[in-house]
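Hi again,

Forgot to attach this to my earlier email, sorry! This is the prediction with flavin-adenine dinucleotide bound. I've pasted everything inline since the attachment limit keeps bouncing my files.
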Amino acid sequence: MAEKITAYRFDRLDQTLNQLNSEDCAIMAGGTDVMVLHKSRRGVPPKIPKPVVFIDHLPELKQVYRNHKDLHIGACCTYGELLEHPLIPIALKNAIQTIAAPAIRNRGTLGGNICNASPAGDTLPLLYIYNAKLQLHSVSGIRTVAISDFIQGPRRVNRLQNELVTEIILPAVLDDESHVIFEKVGNRNADAIAKVSFAGLIRVSKGHIDDIRFAFGAVGPTMVRSSQLESLLLGKTLPLTQTDITQVVTAFDKIINPIDDHRSTAFYRKKVALNLLHYFLSLKHDQPNQ
Ligand SMILES: Cc1cc2nc3c(=O)[nH]c(=O)nc-3n(C[C@H](O)[C@H](O)[C@H](O)COP(=O)(O)OP(=O)(O)OC[C@H]3O[C@@H](n4cnc5c(N)ncnc54)[C@H](O)[C@@H]3O)c2cc1C
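Structure tokens for the complex follow:
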């Protein structure tokens, strides 16, 4: 006989936080990762070892709004909802379009992609270059943490048992003049997990690079970004010289350490990652697209 699962679905956020504070529970947003993690034989319900708390219906986790130039995105906004929202940056929509297929995009959430902390999570390279901050709520209050401090390794995040990620904040992303790109390399254009992904942001002011950031996905345990290498290009004029491009690409060659797995080889991943970086640094970037 199938084992019973205890499940909670509270109307309010404070009730949900009280439950998380009183018992170790599995948080379920869209469930598209949770259900795969606990999948069982066909016809047999998943075996989830803890009580489940549903959060996908809580209004506080479903809002998208502007606070000056910052964009706040509720952790439980589904990909489908974000694709329809006028405030979501085009580059993030481009990344979302590459995720799974519409059925998963109608359930999967941005907060779930972050908390699942897969090295191949498609929104993560962009969230790293947007310097995303996460707001976590618990019965003790609210804390804000940078995404690069929150994600600690594959499926490992800096979250206490009683905390819930409620919002993703993209600082100063609205009305920004940056050019942002996202590239994903997989077996096909849709419904494929990334072998390599890349996000790049550049802002040019009076012909000089004012801000430049880039991050890689699926080539290490977490997203790979180096502010130190980015700073080498600040103040340079476009187009960058081959010497500047080669200096940065060669430096990344030393810090990218992908693995072989069933999706790809370390050799292929590194080669493609460095090609994507070369491509990004060679672009003219004359059109902001935020
Ligand atoms: C067929 C299929 C295809 C897929 N394709 C892709 C793809 O192309 N690219 C990609 O990146 N991903 C893909 N995924 C993975 C998945 O859809 C995404 O990671 C999605 O964003 C997860 O969101 P969710 O709401 O379903 O998370 P859930 O499964 O509900 O949760 C994931 C994890 O995060 C925790 N969690 C969720 N929300 C919160 C919160 N607010 N606070 C604290 N903890 C939380 C949960 O406890 C769990 O540990 C695919 C999955 C499937 C099944």
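Residues 179-282 form a domain with the Enolase-like; domain 1 fold (CATH 3.30.390.50). The mean pLDDT is 95.

That should be everything now.

G.
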